[in-house]
Every structure is written in C-alpha cells, then in structure tokens.
Amino acid sequence: xxxxxxxxYNQSSDQEEMADLIRRGPWTVxxxxxxxxxxxxxxxGRWNSLSRCAGxxxxxxxxxxxxxxYLRPDVRRGNITLEEQLxxxxxxxxxGNRWSKIAQHLPGRTDNEIKNYWRTRVQKHAxxxxxxxxxxxFKDTMRYLWMPRLVERIQAxxxxxxxxxxxxxxxxAPVFGAHTYSPENSSVVASSDSFGTDLTDYCxxxxxxxxxxxxxxxxxxxxxxxxxAAYFPQGMDLTAEESCQWMNAGGDISDTLWNDxxxxx
DNA sequence: AACAGGCTCAACCGCCCGGAA
DNA sequence: ATTCCGGGCGGTTGAGCCTGT
Length: 265
Description:
Blueprint: H1 2-8, H2 16-21, H3 29-42, H4 47-53, H5 60-71, H6 82-95, H7 99-104, H8 111-128, H9 136-167, H10 194-206, H11 227-230, H12 240-249, H13 252-264
Helix pairs in contact: 4-5, 6-9
The chain binds a DNA duplex through helix 4, helix 5 and helix 8.
C-alpha cells in the first residue's frame, strides 16, 4: 500500500511540490473519516475549498468522487439484482451511455457502478458474439433474448420465493396500465414511453422503501408467461425464426450466450 | 502450491458546460 | 466578450481478487 500510494504521487520536477500536497490513489480510513465528518458538519459542494478546509490533500474532484461513489450513506453496493439489470438494459437502449441519467432511476446505484456493470458484463457478451455492442445485431439479442430471459428469471424467482414474497407486494401492485413488458411497448421500438416511465417511477418510488416491493412479476401478465411468444410479435425488426436462425448459426456461440445469460442473471 | 489469465471496481483523466467575475 | 473556476460526465486505467490449470 505504501508503495502504491507513493507511486501515485506525480513525479515530474515541476509538480514535485504539488505532489507533496496532493494525494492520489486509494483513500485511507482516516481520509474517509475526515471527509465524512466535514460533510456532516458543513454539507457538500465547493469541493476544492472543501478539500482545503477539511485538511484533505486531495483534489476537489477526488473528494467529490469518493463521496458520491462510496461514502454517501444511501449508496447501495453489492450485486446488481435481476430487476436492476433489466432496468439498466432498458434504459441504456433508450439513452445509451448516459450513465448518470440511468443511475438516477436506480436509487443508491452510482453511474460508475452501472458503467462498470455494462462494461464488464454486457460488453463481454457483445465481444463473445463478435459484434459491436452498439450494433443492431447485439441490440436485438438484448431485446429479444436477454431481456425476456431476465423477465423469465425474475418471475421464476418470485414464484420460488413463494407466499413470503407475495405478502410483501404492495397493496396497489403496479400493473402499468395495459402495458406488458415486450419489445414493442418498450420505448426501444415504440415511441410510447409508458413502460419505461412507469417502471422507473415505480422503482424510484418503492425501491428505497422496501426492496421486496420492487419486483416485476407484479406488472407481468400472461404475455410474459411465454416469453418466446410475447417477444417475437408481428412487425418486429427480427422475427422469431430469423432470431433463432441467427442464434443457431452461431452454434457454440448461442449455447455460450444462453449459459452466460444465466450466469449473469 | 504456484502461476497465469480474466474479472471487478475504485479512482483518475480529459473534456465540456454554466455561472461568476 | 472573455477568462476562470467549479462541477458533472463518459472513458480509461490498473491494483487486487478470483478462478482455472
């Protein structure tokens, strides 16, 4: 650690004096404590002066990042849930790499965390499929295979969790109007924003209160019972047959994808 | 047990934007 | 109108951990 921290200092001659003052690299417990204490007493913002006043030899940016991504009390860490994964896929298909915007709809998750999830999990699959993450091919795979699979697994999870989970469903379980989750009513394809809005609003409103309240089974109707039927509707860019052909053409790749989807899910 | 390769994620970088001076 | 500064954002890096051999 000592080595790493000393290595982290700038080493150019002109910057030597600065390097003595400005620390970089991993934060120590003491620094975290100092930052948290200062923010508790004075609030956040004006990060450069905050850093100075708090006696932290860090850049303002570093302090801000540490606070927002790690120290903030409402930061949630740990595994991204199935529901969160689905939401990320959905929102990313709408907004692209607007991580902070996506993060706003996943309470407690930081843009950094979502970005990392996307890069390590989602991009990995694009790589395995030998296609670009922004290609239509990969987006179709996500839309027609990955996301339905996620919904399927979420349902299965809800079913196996049994009455206990059911009991935690809020009295007014969101049905999201007449909308069911399928690609055509997702804003990915259709102009309607209703699914995304409803879903994200629901997540935002309920997730911080009780995680159990947030599960997609509540707004899934019979169309989700058979994802393959529900997800390859008429008029889609890719028909079920085309999708199957495309996947089968991949041979091992398709098997790998399914396995990976299960792994990731 | 030791090693290599892959993966994760905290942290940094560079760019951009908006507001104040 | 211009410059400066704080803050936000997406992209990238690399140390440490994990896993397979």
